[in-house]
Amino acid sequence: MGTAQLQGKKFIELVTGGAANLQANVSIVNDLNVFPIPDGDTGDNMSLTMAGGIQAIEGCSEGSLSEISEKLAQGMLLCARGNSGVILSQLFAGLAKGFHGLDAANIKTVGFAIRSGVRRAYESVMKPTEGTMLTVAREAADQACADITPESTLESFLGEYLTEMNASLQRTPELLSVLKEAGVIDSGGAGLVYLIDGMNRSLHGRTEKTDNITTKQKSTDTRGFNENSVMKFGYCTEFLLQLQTCKVNLSSFSIKTITNYLDTVGDSVVAFQTGSIVKVHVHTMTPGSVLGFCQKYGEFLSVKIDNMAIQHNDSIVQNRFEISDGVPPQKQKQFGVVTVASGAGVQEAFRNLGADVVIDGRDGKNPSTEDFMKAFDVVNAETVFVLPNNSDIIMAARQAAELYTKSDIRVLESRNIGDGYAALSMLSFDSGNVNEITDTLNQAMNGVVTGLVTTSTRDATLNGVTIHEHDYIGFSEKNMIASSPSKTDTARILLEKLGISQKQVLIVIYGIDVTEEEKRMVRRYMTEHHSKVELFEIDGGQDIYSFMLILE
Q1: Which pTM does this prediction carry?
Q2: Domain interval for residue 454
Q3: What is the CATH number of the domain that holds 180?
């Protein structure tokens, strides 16, 4: 006899097993990137997104399918990062919608909910591309749901769903030429297959260890705070609060009861309610008072308090600010800017150009939706302009903009570091007009060309360029342009093919691996061959790209 219905407790077992299997195969998914460059992070993005959802449903095994799926989706929504993570969060958000109000679901309803997730995922992408994880999710759902019969069980349905998903994954190179040329299947689709495979294994009692699920937190470095230190920055305080009927009337309780108080004792407040559970994040000098106040309404499911002087929060880089106990947050300023960059030198340059908050966007560390929302809180402006500077980050920024209600969030289509640099170099709030400022920033990005130089992780032939593993490669947008054993030769070939002779300005951002001699070679090349092009140099300190070349 198979399982006729999916209940909340079983759902937790399935998604936990799926997340563990995905985490166990993260490196395989990461390595399926189309370009042979060391920045594959699809597996990390999907796994960290799932981890956020798993954390949100800890201790909820007695809940209904509706309650648990909604909490899982909300946790994933806030932790979503990268395009693959955002799409995955939308798949589960649609799934939760299909389960809404249900204690359990029969197989036909499970199929309906999965197709609801596919529809929502497609709607979340402005220009859906076939041959991606969207196709894998859709084709598998359509076929598996079409084959449901009155005799179908959860085991038979999930088994067929996995089979169809894997078959669709193998077809992705036929639908997307860039995959076929690179000789790989779609990485996001592969992540989905590992996720569903883990669910199927769990259903049959074969599960990866759940301690594989991790958010990759580092051990605490206490060097930033000692016996002579003075507390300046407060504590990053996060917790899950289970509201209790013996303490509060759930039907009349408003989350504003908590947020209004938090605004008087802290900053960077993020709080939301899912069912009878409240998730809170706040920076405060007095975490004890926060916990004491909130405990009047329920009991804690989990608590995390970090001293921000030593906190290893690798996501947000900002100018620190003091939080005074009992002092309300400052009045919103009119305009602010949040941007994303990797490398200390690039981040400093962006701050000097006017960015209020620079989120660390090093490859493999794409900021989550919640990271953006925390940054918006720090900026505290009526209108916040956002420059993601990476095509894989734009969706997370947009999702954060949709969730955030305290400011008007304007996400600009900056797809690389050159776009962001050009926009910030033209930043001016003098007009006071939001639309005019937006237009100016967009116009500044027009005509800017960005080239990147890094090392190849495998042999390949892309766009007619033969690439050998460990050689240097140069590309712009999605076009492979140059390859050679020398990083400076690769940069030179890349610049020539990008039309440097027709440009007026070259901004070279040096990576951490570039030597002083190599910098002199760049200057000599520019002096001897392109003396009319104005050269600006930045020691960026980024660790993936040896050269980031911005041509204007």
Answers
A1: 0.76
A2: 449-551
A3: 1.25.40.340
